[in-house]
Amino acid sequence: MANHSQLGFQDASSPIMEELVQFHDHAMMVALAICSLVLYLLTLVLTEKLSSNTVDAQAIELVWTILPAAVLITLALPSLRILYMMDEINEPDLTLKAIGHQWYWTYEYTDFKDLTFDSYMIPTTDLPLGHFRLLEVDHRVIVPTHSTVRVIVTADDVLHSWAVPSLGVKTDAIPGRLNQTSFLASRPGVFYGQCSEICGANHSFMPIVVESVPLANFENWSSLLSS
Q1: pLDDT digit string, tens, across residues 177-224
Q2: Where this protein primarily resides, as one coarse class (predicted)?
Q3: Residues whose CB is less than 8 angstroms from the CB of residue 169 and which lie 6 or more positions away in sequence, other chains included
Q4: CA 15 and chain centroid, separation
Q5: What pLDDT, on the 0 to 100 scale, is given for residue 52?
């Protein structure tokens, strides 16, 4: 999760988030190069003596037409690649349905017979020592590590958004519509998120907690809850 005064992204915990962080760094380097070039040209204009000589401008016009196009291509190609990767869901190992309510989440493990629970934020007065205020829930989403998880997202009342930054996941929950996304947790851990769509007075109080565990632990947990 994010730390105080943190400027960058959270540590990537899925392949998609790793790609997003790399693309961000790539875009920042392109922006830095553009800013450096503009600053150099501005300095040149301010410090050099002006000349009234008329020169042929075809060459410079060709440069300032081709150069921006090349910059856009260097940004568009990796961006389109990541978009297609995020949209592609091939043979998921587990399907999870997340239903947004005012102001809690309901989760259904559709691969199991009766594995459904509601997830509420733990009030500050009941929060165990060492847990995070406004982020901890009474029932976490448990998923197996290194397994592709498909998440079907919808809402029961108003617009919500199911978002876990460190997993690179953010999908709108719309009443009457099923949206889907997927993620693969590349390491065991606990990953925190929140509803990212203003959904009412208690919008800030419906966090999301995803816990990634080894497959054997997940099987034990699922057998206990479904029995």
Answers
A1: 999 999 999 999 999 999 998 988 888 899 999 999 999 999 998 888
A2: mitochondrion
A3: 14, 16, 151, 162, 163, 181, 183, 193
A4: 11
A5: 55
Residue 145, φ and ψ in degrees, nearest 5: -70, 150
The ranges of the chain with pLDDT < 70 are 1, 50-56, 226-227
Residue 103 preceded by cis peptide, ω within 30: yes
Distance, in Å, from the CA atom of 179 to the CA atom of 167, rounded to the nearest integer, reads 17
At 121-130, the pLDDT tens digits run: 999 888 888 8
185: its two tokens:
């947790």
Q: Three-class SS of residue 137? A: strand
Q: Report the predicted TM-score, pTM, of the whole model to 2 decimal places.
A: 0.84
Query: Number of H helices and number of E strands within the chain?
Result: 3, 10
Per-residue CA distances from 75 to 7, 68, 103, 134 (Å): 22, 11, 38, 37
Q: Which amino acid is at 176?
A: G
Per-residue model confidence (pLDDT) at position 49: 74
Structure tokens belonging to residue 40: 């150099």
Question: How far is it, in rounded angstroms, from Cα 159 to Cα 214?
Answer: 33
CATH class of the domain whose range is 13-85: mainly alpha
The helix (H) or strand (E) run that includes residue 164 is strand 160-164
Q: Which of 153, 163, 146, 121 is nearest to 212 (CA)?
A: 146
Q: Is domain 92-223 annotated with CATH 2.60.40.420?
A: yes
